[in-house]
Amino acid sequence: MRILLIILFSLFVFTESSGMELSIDDAVDYAMKNNLDLKSKKEDLNISKGNLTTALTYPFNPEISLEGRSLNSTGDDVKTRYGFGEKNEYTLYLSQTFETGGQRRIRKDIATSNMDAVQFEIVDMERLLTGEVKREFYNLIFLEDKLKLTDLSIGINQKLLDVAEKRFRSGDAPKMDVNLTMVELKKMENEKIKVMGLLSLSKARLSSLMGLPPDTEIILRRGEDITPPLKDMDLKELKVTAIKNRPDIINFEIKEKTITEEISLTKAEVSPDVRVSLLYNRDYDKDVYGAGVSVPIPVVNRNRGQIETLMAQKLRLNTMRESLKLLIEKEIESAWQRVDTAKKSLKLFKEDILPQLKENADGLKRAYDAGRVDIFAIIIEQQKLNSNTAAYYDSLFEYNTALVDLEAAIAGGGK
Predict the structure, then answer these.
(1) pLDDT at position 250, please?
(2) What does the H/E/C string look like for 354-387?
(3) Cβ(108)–Cβ(86) under 8 Å?
């Protein structure tokens, strides 16, 4: 037992110290299983199943009642004189209400539609959660790249500072070179502090989306920097696919259908329910049997106000659905344009701008070491390289998140 406990403790310590290593797909899968809001939403499905069970259950139980009387007479006639309890009368009633107009069937249809609506709400929540997790994952990659860039800049500026101090001590460079490199070094150190703070917040947000404690150590397992685009990316086709697949659009259609069923139920409720009664009466020394039917007359309450309200709600849902279609088309167009623009920008940075700037910076460093240029030229060129490298990371982040937004907008239908 002691050995087993030691092994388990060692595994626990190893797990805690090594952190949680995740690819982007791992993060999405984990969030689908453990996100607290999604778990809560899935409980609504159990509630809707309970409502369906209620709808399938017949709403009226049979009723039974018993009435009894005991007669007592003090008349002079011996034949009619009797004491309490000697002459008894009792009546037994049995009644049952029957629905008309197919109300039970309509209630079942309404409950089924409501359950379908909850299922599509869950699917839509999963769609949005997938987008949030992927965006935060790419944000972490972006911040990690910026942190590496600041570390690289700090290292370069530290080397420049060492060279500047050495040349200053030997009388080959002015004190201003030392001051300039010192300022650049402190700027990069301050930038690193900011990036580390943003990185910590991003990890906490991703942990929250995945249903993990905010201090969970997350280690990113990165794939290719540039996510491959959707296959057969035709803008018009993507719009059609989105309108067909989006769960929020489908949910509007289900809700409109539900309201139509509720209108039918409201009209059916105007039809009077039939109440059938049977009775048995024991009157002294004879038995009496009887039956009856009662039907309410819907003269005053014909549910007109409720029907008008439901009709207005249906029209509003139809308007909201058409508005959502327009919004989806705008989302797709916007994300499409962002993907295209960011992709062109990435190509320009990767193939032209960054290689040239790196070559320039390396040449100036060699020239400074040889004493042919001053430190100010190197700092300017290094700032250009750093700012353009940061801009490359911005474009990479924009490309990946725009692609995530496009996938979310079409509900993944273009994969």
Answers:
(1) 93
(2) HHHHHHHHHHHHHHHHCCCCCHHHHHHHHHHHHH
(3) no
